[in-house]
Structures are given as C-alpha cells and as structure tokens.
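Workshop exercise sheet. Pairs work together: one partner reads the sequence aloud, the other fills in the structure field after running the prediction. Swap roles for the next sheet.
Pair: D.N. / O.F.
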Amino acid sequence: MNLVPTVLRFRGLRVVIYPNDHRPAHVHVIGADCEAVFSLGCPSGPVELRENYGFRRGQISKIEAALTESLGDLCQAWEEIHGIA
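Structure field:
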C-alpha cells in the first residue's frame, strides 16, 4: 500500500506530496472535486500554479497565499520525502 503524505490541511483541502513524484518541488492540492498542482520554488518561492482541474480563480489565490505562508514547512517536507528540492 502506497501512502500519500498529507503535509498540510486548510479550508477543507489536503496538500499532498507523492513519494514517487518528480522534481522540481511541488505539491498537489486536493478538494472535493478539484485538484491543482503548485510549484514551490524552494527554498524561497514563489509558489506558482502549474495545473488546475476545477478550482475557481478566487480559490487559487487563497490556496497560493496559504501555501506561501507555509513555504518553509512544505519545502522541508519535500526534502524529507525526496531529498534536496
């Protein structure tokens, strides 16, 4: 069984890093019927939307802000799962 680490939760969303995923450092944000992929730009950003499947523009802005606020922790989680970002 391949567990997907949830590294952050906010506003009913899960932020995950897939253990077998590729560089550069990025996260998948998963909602009820939506998913988006954000590049982290480790170590100092910027967080940038790479792919969006169903989130509205206003939601994307709020997600980007939350990810930016947690950037240090997210980059650290990526390094722990994959090695250097």
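Discussion prompt: Helices lie at 57-69, 71-82. What would you look at next?
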